[in-house]
Each structure stands twice: as structure tokens, then as C-alpha cells.
UniProtKB/TrEMBL annotation, chain A:
Superkingdom: Bacteria
Designated name of the protein: CobQ/CobB/MinD/ParA nucleotide binding domain-containing protein
InterPro entries: CobQ/CobB/MinD/ParA_Nub-bd_dom (IPR002586), P-loop_NTPase (IPR027417)
Organism of derivation: Desulfofundulus thermosubterraneus DSM 16057
Pfam name, any one: CbiA
Secretion signal, residue range per the UniProt entry: none
Domain CobQ/CobB/MinD/ParA nucleotide binding stretches: 9-161
Gene3D superfamilies in UniProt: P-loop containing nucleotide triphosphate hydrolases
TrEMBL record, chain B:
GO molecular function terms listed in the Swiss-Prot or TrEMBL record: oxidoreductase activity
Native source species: Desulfofundulus thermosubterraneus DSM 16057
Keywords: Oxidoreductase
Domain Pyruvate:ferredoxin oxidoreductase core: 246-339
All copies of domain Pyruvate flavodoxin/ferredoxin oxidoreductase pyrimidine binding, residue ranges: 14-222
SUPFAM superfamilies attached to this UniProt entry: Thiamin diphosphate-binding fold (THDP-binding), TK C-terminal domain-like
Pfam families in alphabetical order: PFOR_II, POR_N
Domain of life: Bacteria
Protein name: 2-oxoglutarate ferredoxin oxidoreductase subunit alpha
InterPro entries, alphabetized: 2-oxoacid_oxidoreductase, PFOR_II, Pyrv_Fd/Flavodoxin_OxRdtase_N, THDP-binding, Transketo_C/PFOR_II
Length: 228, 353
């Protein structure tokens, strides 16, 4: 994928940029390649719509999900399970990190800075150009810099994830991708992949720059009115 | 104008800014913290003031001060924080100060939890604070509606010189939906001749809710009552969804109404005549919505994320003419669409009573 698979992949970005769905789907794609993969829910910012709520489903699909257990799962606490360290230290395991939104979410990541395997991790910044504060190049760069400052790490690539939820068309993503590319050029960073709901992936591949990987997303976070 | 993807909490902030609100005082609490976060970034862009107070008690009294000085002002919180604000809300109602108070309801009572709930309906619509007063309560059910209702909230507050509460829940605050913001308008805030902005050679302007002489307080209370009667007559708002020929009418607001809409669609597909009344104003309760359907409807089913609060207002409205049933989940649990369908099927055709 993009600049090649590394042992640790970290998804960070603006609140609501789509990190959780991306992290889940990316982790599943690693698992499908036969790699032993752990998904780490590092979101201590937002107690709603986070990975841990679909833990059982993901575990049935073969992922190891690392998040607070038992009654702590739903707590509004910055609690981090020790198993995170296990993933970072196990050279045979692949880890996908779902970090909380904005600089407040990224602060948590800084705690693991000394444990990240040198040259064997990606820190990817997810951009949805339909979100407030990241709608243009300047907004994206500001957000990226405040996240880098908070986690004391450098972003290594951008993920193009523009969407309007259920109202997304491939045109939405293509228009957003131009904004992401503009920002990437200024930042001198690669756009490592685009992501889109599964049914849009084919159309997208035809309209995005050739060679840019498109990760089809199978959406896991549901509203209660979708639950029949 | 392109659509953008917003969280409900962010939309409350943006909707307030676009309604001309320039002052926000509040204290963070899950599940509404994205709202103060958003306004902390957004208000300085438009020359407004965002201030994190030392507590919710502080916030509501800052609102009192700003409203008394004639500002469009807002605060927000969730359950426990709104409870702390009740004294201030009563004072605001007594002093007839326009303002907007947001409650993104979480599970209670007490510290409860941070999951979504609608269990503050009684608190919002029946007082909460002391004294004979009313607060206008608006209950949006989508992110787009939040944007639109924020303007309505501030306008109603001004028109009636009364606090307006916007009542949502954690799901509505946290979920993301595309919204059309439209062009940003220059808002002309109606003149406030009563505001305490200096005497300027004119009459003394006093913002107060103290009436020591009982005769005077009675007159003040009666004046407020006339205002509340006027609001009840003029401001009932609701949405009707597939009510034509409905034999079973669901009644739900906010997130529960979103669930019920999906249920109505599913039931209609299966040939069941089911419709929905969605109150948008929780106070005044939209009694007018019920009269046209009561002939055809065989029964009502109220669905709430609590143990039965709005159902009392539905029963008062229906007044024994039809059976009014209730289905709810509480403590942060949700009545998911499948559960409500099951409940509808149990009742439809008169079984399972």
C-alpha cells in the first residue's frame, strides 16, 4: 500500500476525518494478507462511534482488538491498556493505531514515541476536505502541524478520505483529493492512498491519478436507525 | 454552496454563530464537548467571546449578565451540568432574559453515564428550577435541522424574552451528517430597549427577578402566564411522517424519532398503516398535531430513550380517547429499529395489550 507495508501504521487526523473506519478496514486488509494484526483503539477523546464498540465483530473477523476491557470500555477516561506496549515490542506483529481526533487525541500518541520501531512505522494523516477546519490547504496544514506538535512525531503521508457520509459520490472524493494533493505538495509529503465506501471504489480508481491505491471501506459504525 | 460534513455538536456551534450569537460561556462535559471546542475556534474568527467558566453555575450566571446587557448568548452542557444551572435558568425566566441553553442529554440520574438518553424531558419541559415558569424547548432530529433550529431558537428567545432550550442527546451530538450551510447572513438583532446598557438620560433599566411585594409578584407571574399562553397558541411545531390512514401512530422526538422513521418505512413496506408524529417543540407540546389524526388512529405508541416522560403529555392530549402505549430504553441503551418494529407488531391490530 502506498509506500509499502510497515509493522506499525498510525492513523491520525481531524476529529471526524474517518480514522476509525479507515483503521478498521486497513487492519482487515493486513489480516487478509495473512499478517498477524492488532487494531489499537487509542481514542480517549470521543466516547462515541469508536472501535471498541464493534470489538466482538472485529474479533470474529480475526483481528486482535486492543482497548480497555470490562466496565472501563465505556468510561470517559484516558485509560490505556498495557497490551499496547506488547504490540509495539513484538517484532512479529503488525499494529494499526486508531488515534483520537485533533491535537488532543494525538497527545496520547506522544507517550509511545520512544517505543515506535525506528523506520518501521507510518504516521498517516487522514483528511476529509468536507469537514470544517480542513476544507482548504491552509486548514489541512494547520491541523497537521498542531497534531505533529502534540505527538512530537512527523507525519509520513496523507490519506485522501473526503466524504459526506451517506451522501458521498465519487465526484465528492475526486474534488477533495485535489485539495489533499495541494496540501501534500506544500508539505512535501506523499498521498499514500484514497479511501471510499466499497461501492464507489471502482469508479474512483478510474478518476483518481493512476497508481494511487484505493482502499474500499466496509462501514462498521452504525446509527440505531440502521439497526434492523 | 458546497455541503460539508458536520457533527451535531459542531452544527449547534455553527448554527449559533450564523444566528448572530457572539457570546458563549460553558464548561466541558461529555457528550457535548465538541461544541465548546468548536466555538473556542470559531467565535474568535467573528469577533465573539468564548469563555470557559469555572463551573456550570458560573456559566449560567455569565449568560444572565450578557443577556441583561443585550447580547445574543448561549451556554451548553449535559445532564448534571444542566441540573447545576437550574437556579440560573429560573432567574433568567423570572427576569425575562432571552438566551439559548443546550442540553445534549446523557444517561442519569446522578452521574449516570455518558451514553445517549432523553431522560431530561421532565426537567426541560416541566421546570427543573423553582417558580411558575416555562422554557421553550426545541428538539432537532438531524444535523441539518440543528443548523436551522438554532436560528429559530435565538429568534424565539428574543421574540418572547424567554430562555430557549435546545434538547438533543449524545447520538445527535456525535453523529456526522452532510449539511448545507447556505450563505452567511448579516443578522440584525432586534433592539432591546430594556437592556441594562446605561441610563443615557432615560429611565432606569433594571434586570431583576425580585418582587418583594406579593401583589407585584402575582402580577408579574400573571404577565408571564399570558406570555406562556401566547407561546402555546403560536409556537407549536412538529413534523408529520406518513400519517395518511395510520392506524398506529408513533410519537417520538430527536434520535428516537429517527429510529421511528425507519420503523414507519419498514412497517409501510410490510403493509402496516403506521405513521409518526415528531414533536419539534417539546414545550409548548404540539397538541394541535393530534386532533387531525385521532379519528383514524386506533392507538398511539410513544417511543423514548427514558422510562416514559413525554408519554404523559401525549396521554394528556389524547385524554383517554385512544390507548397510548409506551416503549422505551434507558440508562444509555437505545431502542433500536428492530426492537420498535417488534413492539409495533405486538400492538398492531389490538394484540398484546
Amino acid at each position: 500500500m502506498g509506500t509499502g507495508i510497515r509493522r506499525i501504521t498510525i492513523f491520525t487526523g481531524h476529529l471526524g476525518s474517518g480514522k476509525t473506519e479507515l483503521a478498521i478496514n486497513f487492519a482487515l486488509s493486513l489480516k487478509e494478507r495473512g499478517l498477524p494484526t492488532s487494531l489499537i483503539d487509542l481514542d480517549v477523546v470521543n466516547p462515541y462511534f469508536r472501535t471498541r464498540l464493534v470489538r466482538e465483530k472485529l474479533e470474529q473477523l480475526g483481528l486482535t482488538v486492543i482497548c480497555p476491557r470490562g466496565e472501563w470500555m465505556r468510561a470517559d477516561l484516558p485509560a490505556l491498556p498495557p497490551a499496547i506496549r506488547g504490540v509495539l515490542e513484538d517484532p512479529g506483529r503488525y499494529g494499526v493505531f486508531d488515534v483520537g481526533g485533533d491535537e488532543v487525541g494525538a497527545t496520547v500518541l506522544g507517550r509511545f514515541k520512544p517505543l515506535l520501531p525506528a523506520k518501521d512505522y507510518h504516521l498517516w494523516f487522514v483528511v476529509n476536505a468536507c469537514r470544517p477546519f480542513t476544507r482548504d490547504k491552509e486548514g489541512i496544514i494547520n491541523m497537521l502541524e498542531s497534531i505533529e506538535k502534540a505527538c512530537r512525531l512527523k507525519v509520513t503521508g496523507l490519506v485522501s478520505n473526503t466524504n459526506l457520509g451517506a451522501a458521498t459520490g465519487w465526484q465528492t472524493i475526486v474534488a477533495g483529493h485535489r485539495v489533499v494533493q495541494d496540501a501534500a505538495r506544500v508539505l512535501n509529503l506523499p498521498v499514500v492512498m484514497a479511501a471510499a465506501r466499497g461501492d464507489l471504489a471502482e469508479e474512483l480508481r478510474a478518476h483518481l491519478p493512476p497508481g494511487l491505491p484505493v482502499l474500499p471501506l466496509n462501514l462498521f459504525m452504525q446509527t440505531p436507525w440502521q439497526d434492523f | 454552496m458546497a455541503k460539508i460534513l458536520m457533527k451535531g455538536n459542531e452544527a449547534i456551534g455553527e448554527g449559533a454563530v450564523r444566528a448572530g450569537c457572539r457570546y458563549f460561556f460553558g464548561y466541558p462535559i461529555t457528550p457535548q464537548s465538541e461544541l465548546p471546542h468548536y466555538l473556542a475556534k470559531r467565535l474568535p474568527e467573528v469577533g465573539g467571546v468564548y469563555l470557559q467558566s469555572e463551573s456550570e453555575t458560573g456559566a449560567i450566571n455569565m449568560v444572565y449578565g450578557a443577556a441583561g446587557a443585550g447580547a445574543r448568548v448561549m451556554t451548553s452542557s449535559s445532564g448534571p451540568g444542566i441540573s447545576l444551572m437550574q437556579e440560573g435558568i429560573s432567574y433568567l425566566a423570572g427576569a425575562e432574559l432571552p438566551c439559548v441553553i443546550v442540553n445534549m442529554i446523557r444517561g442519569g440520574p446522578g452521574l449516570g453515564n455518558i451514553a445517549p438518553a432523553q431522560s431530561d424531558y421532565f426537567q426541560a419541559t416541566k421546570g427543573g428550577g423553582h417558580g411558575d415558569y416555562r422554557v421553550i424547548v426545541l428538539a432537532p432530529a438531524s444535523v441539518q435541522e440543528i443548523i436551522d433550529l438554532m436560528r429559530v431558537a435565538f429568534d424565539l428567545a428574543d421574540r418572547y424574552r424567554n430562555p430557549v432550550m435546545v434538547a438533543g442527546d449524545g447520538i445527535l451530538g456525535q453523529m456526522m451528517e452532510p449539511v448545507e450551510l447556505g450563505e452567511e447572513e448579516e443578522i440584525q438583532i432586534p433592539p432591546r430597549p430594556w437592556a441594562a446598557t446605561g441610563r443615557m438620560g432615560g429611565e432606569k433599566k433594571l434586570i431583576n427577578s425580585l418582587y418583594i411585594v406579593p401583589e407585584e409578584l402575582e402580577q408579574h407571574n400573571l404577565k408571564l402566564a399570558r406570555k406562556y399562553a401566547l407561546i402555546t397558541e403560536r409556537e407549536q411545531r412538529w413534523e408529520e411522517y406518513r400519517l395518511g390512514g395510520a392506524k398506529l401512530v408513533l410519537v417520538a422526538f430527536g434520535t428516537a424519532a429517527r429510529i421511528c422513521k425507519a420503523v414507519v418505512d419498514r412497517c409501510r413496506e410490510e403493509g402496516l398503516a403506521v405513521g409518526l408524529i415528531r414533536p419539534i417543540t417539546l414545550w409548548p407540546f404540539p397538541q394541535k398535531a393530534f386532533e387531525p389524526v385521532i379519528e383514524e388512529a386506533e392507538r398511539f405508541l410513544v417511543v423514548e430513550m427514558n422510562l416514559g416522560q413525554m408519554v404523559e403529555d401525549v396521554r394528556l392530549t389524547v385524554n383517554g380517547r385512544r390507548p397510548v402505549h409506551f416503549y422505551g430504553r434507558c440508562g444509555g441503551m437505545l431502542p433500536v429499529a428492530a426492537d420498535v418494529v417488534r413492539e409495533v407488531k405486538k400492538l398492531y391490530g389490538g394484540e398484546g395489550q
